[in-house]
């Protein structure tokens, strides 16, 4: 669309306009995009060889690997990555004690290139907490050679490397719809959501139709419980095809603190179990000393908990008041807060990640090693393997239709498979309780080394585990002191989360009435407790009737509600791109 | 790095002026280090035609920015200069006024409505002031600074972001513009505000009076 510059025309009798303010005829202006005449339902379309949804460790590793292969074999490839966060890294949150295995493969000279992987693990501690004491136990982790990092920072660095190689990365654009071919059997890309739609569904003055990104292959790296990935798993029966069980999850809440210099020990890694969680609730805390007096601290609780009154956020605040933890944090300031669900299903829950037209990578498929509590290295490796498979099939003249079947076999031949196989029985063992779980885990670790030919199965899906409120009692949590512990809304502010409030609510209820007919009376409204962003609030309206208020603006995109709602009535859909948290050191 | 919200509104207004037929080209300017090019690319993606990056690592205060804009205006000869009313990091609200002074151009600040009148070679501006709304008619060329209510900036679409990569961004230094950047003031100290002390519960009015008199010394 080029605008021809016309010389100013002096109309008869008018004063000629100065050169500085040249005029146009309307004819030349007809094609300006904003008031353009294309059909309202048509979307503009952009074509690529590979489209990747999600600029996370898996997506960016895949993008980088694709460009490396393209350069090595001198075969040009167009690669596009879309990311729903306002910038790369904004939606990335993780512990994180990083194993460099996959990064070593992807970018062997990452150290010389200045990757933000600089704090080696110096000490590895493991405590059993009671309300007053901390009992030191031998650490079950082997973190020698690993690094304490901010995954958000690492991902931003990976994005720069990807862009240097020619990958196009578009933050602020959310993949909201999967595109299928005319027969509906093959994925041909994704579409971003329409922007500028108001809460009631009408179009605002800045309405902008979404755009179609079509790829010969599309990779989905949306992270744990990705919204499009869930649809693909269902449509293509990907769990059934792999004889896999359902996925199980945990919810992690995390803060990054700046502590007093004298208390800071870079590389110190601490994990705790026990208090404040009871023996029926699987979970534990982490505390990692990063660089520059920063300390990452958080609590991860498995979502198969039974007590509907459990409030994971409050348990985390309570945890920090433990004498051994409080002493470190006193005098410090909280820099950021955030929360995200993680996969815990491991080996038993891996779906077949390949479908016609693309694949799932990273946590969207689910390669996190639960007992090791690490998923970054496996996510990156899955991205690398997917890229190799995608490249091979695109270059293979024999393949009339590119297909990534050999990604599935490559995964099974890789160290991801071996690692997850050996780790498969730890987490499911805890469905028998804390002590049996620890006993079986010890057996698996020190005796069978994961090689005994038995595979424990997961218990029921997380959302079915919640028991009725009558069986439990309200929990009394301590009031926040504003020093070590904080009320949720104050903390939420530190996540930098925001959404344009005038847009359709992205948390959709399949049945409007269920919160009032089931969630509230039977389960005491658990969503008002597990949501780490106070999105769900039960209030009484002016007529004294109970009502569920959804504060969608607060959402941290953690996906806990999509996972834990007892009747699976809540569906998390993606809001307008650019919204959500703004993590930078998480 | 993101565009100052008021500047985004100024850019949106410039695009609307061009779309109304009153202008032929929208040129955007950003001053500072390399990160400015990201902001310029966003502006080009919204629809601006070309960008100018005034490259400097020195800290820039409104007076310096106004001098640099004056030099650019002499070079480019625009008919209308649109700026955000203030930056949200320093809240100065000075640049637009200063550059209007340097150029000796009329100014309409805190604009909540802008309408260019080609036939009269002027622009009508409605300003938000303490007492209400003020309507001005300014001869062109003029300086306008924009306020929140002026418009709702458009989204940059993916195809436009891609097209923006091909649009030119010219790089120029203060030395080339023959502007000397002097640091007009020193920042001595930046401190966090004092932490609010917890309130004290009192048991009687007498206690309150006693505290107001003897502790707070306000009575």
UniProtKB/TrEMBL annotation, chain A:
Keyword Magnesium included in the entry's annotation: no
Catalytic activity: a ubiquinone + reduced [electron-transfer flavoprotein] = a ubiquinol + oxidized [electron-transfer flavoprotein] + H(+)
Signal sequence, renumbered to the chain: none
PANTHER family in the cross-refs: ELECTRON TRANSFER FLAVOPROTEIN-UBIQUINONE OXIDOREDUCTASE (PTHR10617), ELECTRON TRANSFER FLAVOPROTEIN-UBIQUINONE OXIDOREDUCTASE, MITOCHONDRIAL (PTHR10617:SF107)
Compartments it resides in: Mitochondrion inner membrane
Enzyme class: oxidoreductase
The family this protein is said to belong to: Belongs to the ETF-QO/FixC family.
Main location: mitochondrion
Stored Pfam families: ETFQO_UQ-bd, Fer4_ETF_QO, NAD_binding_8
Protein name, per record: Electron transfer flavoprotein-ubiquinone oxidoreductase
Domain ETF-QO/FixX C-terminal: from-to ranges: 482-584
Co-factor remark: Binds 1 [4Fe-4S] cluster.
EC number: 1.5.5.1
Domain ETF-QO/FixC ubiquinone-binding per the UniProt entry, residue ranges: 249-342
Listed GO MF terms: 4 iron, 4 sulfur cluster binding; electron-transferring-flavoprotein dehydrogenase activity; metal ion binding
GO terms for cellular component: mitochondrial inner membrane
Cofactor: FAD; [4Fe-4S] cluster
Function in brief: Accepts electrons from ETF and reduces ubiquinone.
Keyword list, A-Z: Electron transport, FAD, Flavoprotein, Iron, Iron-sulfur, Membrane, Metal-binding, Mitochondrion, Mitochondrion inner membrane, Oxidoreductase, Transit peptide, Transport, Ubiquinone
UniProtKB/TrEMBL annotation, chain B:
Cross-referenced InterPro entries: ET-Flavoprotein_bsu_CS (IPR000049), ETF_a/b_N (IPR014730), ETF_b (IPR012255), ETF_beta_N (IPR033948), Rossmann-like_a/b/a_fold (IPR014729)
Localisation per UniProt entry: Mitochondrion matrix
Alphabetized PROSITE patterns for the sequence: ETF_BETA (PS01065)
GO MF annotation terms: electron transfer activity
Transport is among the record's keywords: yes
Keyword field: Electron transport, Mitochondrion, Transport
Listed GO biological process terms: amino acid catabolic process; fatty acid beta-oxidation using acyl-CoA dehydrogenase
Cellular component, GO, one term: mitochondrial matrix
Pfam families, per the entry: ETF
Predominant location category: mitochondrion
Domain Electron transfer flavoprotein alpha/beta-subunit N-terminal: 1-181
Assembly, per entry: Heterodimer of an alpha and a beta subunit.
Family membership noted in the UniProt record: Belongs to the ETF beta-subunit/FixA family.
PANTHER family linked to this entry: ELECTRON TRANSFER FLAVOPROTEIN BETA-SUBUNIT, ELECTRON TRANSFER FLAVOPROTEIN SUBUNIT BETA
Record function comment: The electron transfer flavoprotein serves as a specific electron acceptor for several dehydrogenases, including five acyl-CoA dehydrogenases, glutaryl-CoA and sarcosine dehydrogenase. It transfers the electrons to the main mitochondrial respiratory chain via ETF-ubiquinone oxidoreductase (ETF dehydrogenase).
Name the record gives this protein: Electron transfer flavoprotein subunit beta
């Amino acid at each position: 669309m080029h605008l021809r510059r016309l010389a100013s025309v002096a109309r008869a009798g008018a004063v000629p306009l100065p050169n500085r303010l040249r005029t146009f005829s309307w004819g030349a202006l007809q094609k300006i995009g904003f008031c353009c005449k294309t059909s309202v339902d048509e979307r503009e379309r952009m074509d690529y060889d590979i489209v990747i949804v999600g600029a996370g460790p898996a997506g960016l590793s895949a993008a980088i690997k694709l460009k490396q292969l393209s350069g090595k074999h001198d075969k040009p490839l167009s690669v596009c990555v879309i990311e729903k966060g306002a910038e790369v890294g904004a939606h990335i949150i993780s512990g994180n004690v990083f194993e460099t295995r996959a990064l070593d493969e992807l970018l062997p000279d990452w150290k010389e290139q200045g990757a933000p992987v600089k704090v080696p693990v110096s000490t590895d501690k493991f405590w059993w907490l009671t309300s007053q004491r901390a009992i030191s136990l031998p650490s079950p982790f082997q973190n020698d050679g690993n690094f304490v990092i901010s995954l958000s920072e690492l991902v931003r660095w990976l994005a720069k490397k990807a862009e240097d190689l020619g990958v196009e990365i578009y933050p602020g654009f959310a993949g909201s719809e999967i595109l299928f071919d005319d027969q509906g059997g093959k994925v041909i890309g994704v579409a971003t959501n329409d922007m500028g739609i108001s809460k009631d569904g009408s179009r605002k003055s800045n309405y902008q139709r979404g755009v179609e990104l079509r790829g010969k292959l599309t990779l989905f790296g949306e992270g744990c419980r990705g919204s499009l990935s869930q649809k693909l798993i269902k449509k293509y029966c990907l769990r059934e095809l792999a004889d896999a069980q359902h996925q199980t999850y945990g919810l992690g809440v995390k803060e990054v603190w700046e502590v007093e210099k004298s208390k800071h020990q870079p590389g110190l890694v601490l994990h705790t179990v026990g208090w404040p969680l009871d023996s029926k609730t699987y979970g534990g805390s982490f505390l990692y000393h990063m660089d520059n007096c920063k300390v990452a601290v958080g609590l991860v609780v498995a979502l198969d908990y039974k007590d509907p009154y459990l409030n994971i956020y409050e348990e985390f605040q309570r945890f920090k008041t433990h004498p051994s933890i409080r002493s470190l944090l006193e005098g410090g300031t909280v820099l950021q807060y955030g929360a995200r669900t993680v996969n815990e299903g491991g080996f038993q829950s891996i779906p077949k990640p390949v479908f016609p037209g693309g694949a799932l990578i990273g946590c969207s498929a689910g390669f996190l090693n639960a007992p090791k509590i690490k998923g970054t290295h496996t996510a990156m490796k899955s991205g690398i393997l997917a890229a190799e498979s995608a490249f091979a099939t695109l270059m293979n003249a024999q393949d009339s239709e590119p297909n990534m079947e050999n990604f599935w076999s490559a995964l099974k031949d890789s160290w991801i498979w071996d690692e997850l196989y050996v780790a498969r029985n730890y987490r499911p063992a805890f469905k028998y309780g804390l002590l049996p779980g620890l006993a079986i885990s010890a057996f698996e670790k020190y005796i069978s080394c994961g090689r005994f030919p038995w595979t424990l199965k997961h218990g029921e899906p997380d959302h079915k585990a919640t028991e009725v409120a009558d069986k439990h009692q309200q929990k009394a949590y301590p009031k926040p002191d504003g020093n070590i512990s904080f009320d949720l809304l104050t903390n939420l502010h530190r996540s930098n989360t925001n959404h344009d409030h005038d847009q359709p609510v992205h948390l959709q209820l399949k049945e409007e009435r269920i919160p009032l007919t089931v969630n509230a009376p039977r389960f005491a409204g658990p969503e008002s407790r597990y949501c780490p962003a106070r999105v769900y609030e039960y209030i009484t309206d002016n007529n004294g009737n109970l009502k569920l208020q959804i504060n969608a603006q607060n959402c941290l995109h953690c996906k806990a509600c999509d996972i834990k709602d007892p009747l699976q009535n809540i569906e998390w859909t993606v809001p307008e791109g650019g919204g959500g948290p703004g993590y930078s050191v998480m | 790095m993101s565009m100052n919200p008021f500047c985004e509104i100024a850019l949106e207004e410039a695009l609307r002026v061009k779309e109304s037929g009153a202008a032929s080209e929208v040129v955007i300017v950003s001053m500072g280090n390399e990160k400015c090019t990201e902001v310029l690319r966003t502006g080009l993606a919204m629809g601006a035609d070309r960008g100018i990056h005034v490259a400097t690592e020195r800290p820039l205060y409104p007076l310096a920015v106004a001098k640099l804009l004056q030099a650019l205006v002499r070079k480019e000869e625009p008919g209308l200069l649109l700026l955000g009313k203030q930056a949200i990091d320093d809240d100065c609200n000075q640049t637009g006024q200063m550059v209007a002074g340097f150029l000796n151009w009329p100014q309409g600040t805190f604009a909540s409505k802008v309408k260019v009148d080609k036939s009269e070679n002027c622009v009508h501006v409605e300003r938000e002031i303490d007492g209400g709304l003020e309507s001005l008619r300014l001869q062109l060329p003029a300086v306008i600074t924009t306020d929140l209510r002026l418009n709702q900036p458009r989204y940059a679409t993916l195809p436009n972001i891609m097209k923006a990569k091909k649009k030119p961004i010219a790089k120029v230094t203060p030395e080339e513009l023959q502007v000397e950047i002097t640091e007009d003031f020193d920042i001595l100290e930046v401190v966090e505000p004092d932490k609010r002390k917890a309130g004290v519960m009192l048991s009687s009015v007498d206690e309150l009076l006693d505290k107001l008199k003897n502790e707070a010394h306000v009575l």
